[in-house]
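We store chain and fold; thus.
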Amino acid sequence: MTCWTVSSHCPIRTMTRPRRTSAVARGRPAARVVVSAAGRDVPPLPRLARLVCGLGLGLQVTVADHRHDAGDPRLAHGLRWQVTAVAPDAPLDPATVPLDRSLSEAVPNCLRHLAGTLHRSLPASPDFPIRGPQQPVPPAEPLDPTRQILDLAARHPGRPVAARLGRTGCRVHVPE
C-alpha cells in the first residue's frame, strides 16, 4: 500500500477537491485514498469556566435532553447544548433553546463570541471602574459539572436545564 502526503508545495493542493482526488489516484488500479479527519482542539468545560470566571464573567451551560423523542420525526433528537459567557449580574435565562448537537460543538461557539461578551460587560460610563480579576492566585481548575447537568436534563426530558458557573459557585435552573 502506498501512502501519499500532500504538502503545501505540491500543485495538487491548489486543485479543487474532486480533481485532487483523481490526481492522487491516477494510474493506480483500484486506488484507495485514505483521508484522516482530526477533530478540533476544544478545551474542556472546567478550563473554559476557569477562563471565563477569571475574566469576571459567568458561564451559562444549557442542556435539553431529546433522547425520548426518537420515535417522532417532527421533534429534535438527542442532546442539545449551549455554552454562553454572560455578565455576572445577568439573570439566569432558562428560556434559551440550546441548538448545538454536542458539548464539543458548543464550547467553540462560546469562545468565538467571548470577546463581544467581554466588551458588552464593560461599563459604558467612565464613572464606574472596569472590573478586574480580584484573586491573587489563579484558582484550581473546577470539577467538571457535565455529568450532573446531564443527569438533571435526563430527569426533565425535552425541557432546557440551565446551570450558571460563576466566581461564587454554581446556580441551576430546573424547569417545573
About this structure: The chain has five helices and four strands.
